[in-house]
Please model this.
Amino acid sequence: MDTTQYMDVFIDESNEHLEVLYKQLLELEKNPTEKAIIGEIFRAAHTLKGMSATMGYNDLANLTHKLENVFDGIRYDRIIVQTEMMDVLFETVDHLNAMVEDIASGGDGKRNVSQIVTYLEKIEKGDQLEQASETPVNSAKQDSLQTITALDEFEMTILNESAERGFSNYEITVMLREDCLLKGARVFMVFEVLEKLGEVIKSEPSVNDLEEEKFENSFTVILVSKQGEQEIKNKIKKVSEIENVEINHFSNPYNYKNTNQQNDEHQVKEHTNDQTEQPATNAGKSTGKSSSSKTIRVNIERLDILMNLFEELVIDRGRLEQISGELNHQDLQETVERMSRVSGDLQNIILTMRMVPIDQVFNRFPRMIRKLARDLDKNVAIDIVGAETELDRTVIDEIGDPLVHLIRNAMDHGIETPQERLKKGKPEQGTIRLEAYHSGNHVFIEIADDGAGINKDKVLNKAISNDVISRNQAEALTDKQIYELIMESGFSTADTISDISGRGVGLDVVKNTIESLGGNISIDATAGKGSIFSIQLPLTLSIISVLLVELNKEKYAIPLSSVIETAIIHKDQIMHAHNKKVIDFRGKVVPLAFLNDIFNVPKDNTDDSDFVSIVIVRKGDKMAGLVVDSFIGQQEIVLKTLGNYLTNVFAISGATILGDGQVALIIDSNALIKS
Amino acid sequence: MANETLIDKKVIVFQLKDEEYAVSVQQVGSIERIVPITRVPQTANFVKGVINMRGVVTPVIDLRVRFGMEETEFSDSTRIIIVYMDEMEVGLIVDAANDVIDIPESAIEPAPEVVGTVDVDYIEGVAKLDSRLLILLNLQRVLSNEEINELKSVEG
Model:
């Protein structure tokens, strides 16, 4: 079978199942007896096994099979979950992960796993000695009896459903006598009998081949029926020239059923206690299937192209709005308004299509922390809040590494060893809290630990000795500014360089990455209580809402995300504080920034009106009033860069093309507020 | 014939004041008439601003100012030559863009040391063609970022 076309799907789905495995294993560690978790793991392992076997990756399939066996044991209480086991299980999943990665990068997924297999087998046998002798027999039987393995989804669904409704699935192998002359006719007769008894789901060889007598002298069918085995057998045997009929309960290879359940005719007496769990398992599985089928996978490239095309459309929309405004033609205006509304909806949909839950990034942290905690001999729990928070795909792709870095940092420098923690009167187990939430046009991600916090003096001394700041500068710094020194380049507070963090190229990289995404990061800490790193990120990177303002004849755009409000005040209200112009804005003293002066806007004979227009912007908890000549209004714009020639223009973060085809610059109000 | 084209260099010839300059045709994307320019504050004085070049925001520089000549009003013949260089896309404002010609490699001489008062590191050579004297530009030097950054720090 040519499987290359399924490769991408296989890799994607395998990764999903591996995620489930990791996640549920972590849960299992917390609640070792929770049946739902065990079932979940079992299903993930089982599906992975089926998929990899179909794709021909036998090593992957075998290892998953071993894992599945262990969980089968756990499921039926033959094996008790123990802590030592967890490490082996995690390691198994690590191996599986490595195999899938190898396959994804074009390898054959082969890997030496003999040691882990031995462990798994030990676990499997350890607590079920009395069954050990029986199980291999059964699995061997399974191999020899189950001739039909390739079932499509539709067939599987029918089998699952039939089991729920109290039908039985049989695999019937009919042997015709060797001297049978009209094989096709006999087959037809057998089928006629079968159709009366129930429904034939599948036959091997296919019905067509059977009719054309393209088979030796036996064929196998899967029958769904309410009749008992013996009855079916007797009825089939009434057809002449039948040598033998073998009937087994069919266990769907893609849908696990205990091996005991294939009640071979000869084994019926040994295994009379038929499992009742099976329908339940099947029910869970089939509902899971139907809910997942409502999504399709789309190549991210196509979404990017869609986005680019839409950006063009937004520019033209602006142009159309402007033209219709000038022409003052009613029909045209109505049409353009309608189009604007529709394209507004379209924009929302395209943007949300590109949104993915941050869980994609967060979900790898629990196992990372688990592993790090072991390496560092620390006891750390992770608490994730808001994993469903959605972020633009491009941001998600970039944010993973910085977060890894921050978490490593918190593990290594923040959380103390259990002994130290006990000495300080803290619980032995440290906690790292990872929280994401939306606020306005931004997403906030906080990484908080309840560790030692940041040692201010140590940071200061280090910063001074590393020439990050001078001694004089150091005295004027606030606590927060001191903490933020650890993100300056050339700074690392780890006394010893460890494998986890502290290679000197740490947090400054994090800071740069986040700033390049249009976000910012701040640090707060309390000595002895822990520290919080908060990251603020824009929801999306390409289309933003802005307030257009005019400075003389020039148009500038101020991102709405940083605008608090606009105000028109009388000149008399401007006060002077230490040579700076400030205003009293709702009880707060807000400094003014005259954009005309900052941007050297050419002055023409300014009509001295008594009022000034002010845009109040904020950066964190600081505010400033930007003085402009007039407001134009709010608009959705497409962010464009100034190109590679003009880099680092002061207080300008980019440009956009307005409806009239002119370029307007986007003001980076963060640069205008001194922190 | 093949030999000839190999040693010929195709250039775009443009005018600044009363001198003729040339840039390799391979580096030129298009030649445009003057379009509205959006000023970008706090940049070097020869950076006139940015224009909308078919949806791409493109910076433009005034070559007169870049080369230390006096600025003039734009006229009907003023052109913007869009050039590509090291992933950069920049418009050069020139007095006029005259024609495209082939310069035989043999006609190109290195920039004479005595040429002038301005720093000549952006001149690649001089070609004498009949009665015309073409100054070949080294775009890399013309657009070097160091120059901008230097000027910026002086201003800032």
